[in-house]
Amino acid sequence: MRLLFALILLTATLSAAAQQFGGNPSSMKWQQINTDTVRVIFPQGMNAQGERVANIVTYLNRYTRKSIGPLERKVNIVLQNQTMMSNGYVALGPFRSEFYLAPSPTSYDLGSLNWEEQLSLHEYRHVLQNMNFRQGASKVVSWLGGQMGQAAATNIAVPNWFWEGDAVTMETALSEQGRGRLPAFFDGFRALALENKDYRYMKIRNGSYKDFTPNHYPLGYLMSVYGRDHYGSTIWKDVTTDAVRYRGVFYPMSHGMKKRMGMNVTSFYETMRGHYDSIWTSYAQRPEITPARQLLPTQKTPSNYKYIYPAGNNEYIVSIDAWNKVPGFYLLKADGSKELLTRPGIEYDDYFSYKNNRIVWAAARFDARWGWKDLSVIRVFDRKTGKTQTVSERGKFYSPDINQDGTVVVAAAITTDMKYSLHLINTTTGKTAKILPNPENYYYTNPRFSATDDAIISAARNSKGEMALISQSVSDGNITVLTPFSFNVLGAPAVAGDTVYFTAGNKDVNNVYALTLADNKTYEVTDRPNSVLYMSPVPGQDSLLFSEFTTKGYKLYQGALSANWKPAPVNILQHNAWLNPDFKEGGNILDIVPHDSLFVKNYRKTTGFFNFHSWIPSFDDPEYSISLLGNNILNTTSTSLGYTYNRNDGTSNFGGSFLYGAWFPWLGTGFDYTLNKSQLYKGQRIYWNQLSWHAGFTIPLNLSSGLYARSLAIASNYYIQKLYADGIRFRVNPQQYTSTALVFSNSRIKGSQNIISHFAQYLMMQYNHSIGTAKGEQFYGRFDLNLPGFSANHGIVLQAAYQQTDTMGNYSFSDRFVYARGYSKPYYSKIYKVGANYHFPLWYPDWGFAQILYFSRIRANAFFDYMNAYDYRFKSNTPYRSTGAELYLDTKIGNTIPFTFGVRYSYLLDKDYVDNAKSRLEFIIPLQQLFAY
Questions:
Q1: Domain ranges of the chain
Q2: Whole-angstrom Cα distance, residue 898 to residue 857?
């Protein structure tokens, strides 16, 4: 039972991971459109977006339920316009959805549809899923645990590939594009087929630290489509109904598939793979395939080579993102060796440009207080000086390019009211010198200066989501459409004289095309077995360098440039039938959804101030608790009421807490009433009840920039405790004290294989001090330092901690000190500890059993701890030294929940005065892992 509730808690936490507490400025005004189907909540001035979302989801609710079910429930949808991230989610606890309104800087992965329309199609499908999955056993769990209970039950029953695959299916079936029509969406599975990589279902589901595996989005889409094609459009409604009702207690989804299709989930996956693999391998064997040679040997560690630019002397500038390193810009030399030039750091858009020894990119910046408020700056690295400088003010910039002499940068930009433009930025002053007119509000992607710097060549999306290449004059802003608008995605242009090379998804894969500006004709340049997304013509040579996707990432290839080009109108989609799904769900609905004007009124931030939504039990022996949780829809309030029983001392605790995050700083308060507290006094156990109350504030700051995720939090609380007992006089009653803490974290970003950050610092200081004549105090400090190890995925963590407390016994403050491993807690008035850890991977098993437990990585940590405790009674210092090793297993439970556990062996070099032990073997579960781990 304890494991079940642990799974419920962890699954519910995962489902809510996208939420931000108190993320918007307190000055923001909110409005709403409130109907019987949906309440759309949006910042003031976003009426058009709010109305469009409300109209689309109302239509979806009425006419697209056949394949998911008839159950209904009203939902809140919040539109976020302060962030540069392109995303959206639906969560239970509370039930709501949030749309991040900034479109993706590129179109290859998410497509080019009008972004709030695509989000409506995709995310409202998740809303319908949640509505209709509240059945049977999942409904019973929702009665017992509320919304987060339902989230846990349905996420365990239905795998994440179905949630996302079904949503991608609907965004594709109900529009003229969607990810199901994007060639790059299938590059991963296509690469596996072309290289005969037959990974088992558990590996595809759980991923790998050593091999590329497609994520659950394309997996789910292919599973969804194959099921619909062979068993009808309602098959998944029937299967998921069985699953969420737990008609098969073990493997509920697989049980439902076996019942309805005659195949369990692994057999179905293998059948699906066989079907699509044959299509992809057949396509790759066509005689038209353009020959090319791989430029560099394939490395063991997956690595992506992107956006290659000529740098003279057969050298190139390229972005390399290897799994065991932080992404960086490299000089690729003629002999194949690589030289690191600089690293871009945290970014929303991995696009960069290069010209005349200057690399330019957009680097992420964050508002220190408001988590939803994202910004960026333009950075330039100069190869001649080896220095990097910021050449713009903070804004919402992405995908920059630099002119020939390095004086002007063009960057696409977005505003909070979803207006798009091109900014010409003076690199000397850092100011925007000119904003080019954009009367059609085109969304620009990958703008580039023309060969003469007098025009900007860019991919652009219109309001429907159709794409074209355009040219815009720098002098007068006139726009010339170079290719017809269509739903064929294109971008990443490279300008060579009067020819513009670009990539587009005209066929089953993305390929390189050329546009000759003199006659405005387009040609197919490459025809490859898998997608080509980044290219560069080689000056003075008849060749083209390009990146093509493989199972080891995007690899560099070189092919002839002057081969016979074929005329290729890029507005005519030539995909095979499997890329054009027709599921009889209504077809493209975006042209028929009405544009009704809806009533808009103000939305009070105090709406649903407490909004209790979930009961969460917790079993952490010796404490057993249950809590009622509440959050408002804008996520600026957090409330908890609960009861805890401690089995060891027999106490019962009733308490509550409230945190308000809409202001600066956060404000919090809470109370606890504890029954049957006890203590031995002169050989007799005395009992009392205790009432405590606290109030305080927290200042959370995000200081991240460059290569570092950096945060600072300062908190202070006032506590008062009143003790109640008959015939007992307490030394201090009531007790009053303050607790102040500072936590600083600075962590360099890391590669996906890295166990820890290679350079990081963590500092925590806490001081508790009594108020009144009876003294009581405690100081605690901790500092961790991460350093690189002897190999790319190794890491060192050095630790130091100190704690000092008074010995008068007036107060008993909580003890946060981490003692030397293997030792019992000694008696002391002050204590310090230093430690050293060396983390390293041992094995990437990529193995699991029975769909229950999957092992992705086994890693170890060798450690040494030295601790010294000062005993004021004997005026003595006592050393405690231990050494040993920890073995960690990084796993997933049920193909869903990340779970790390391990064992620790500690050898004690000094005596443990409590039990005289010489060594200890402990089982460890790092549920609350610090930044270093």
A1: 30-132+597-603, 134-285
A2: 11
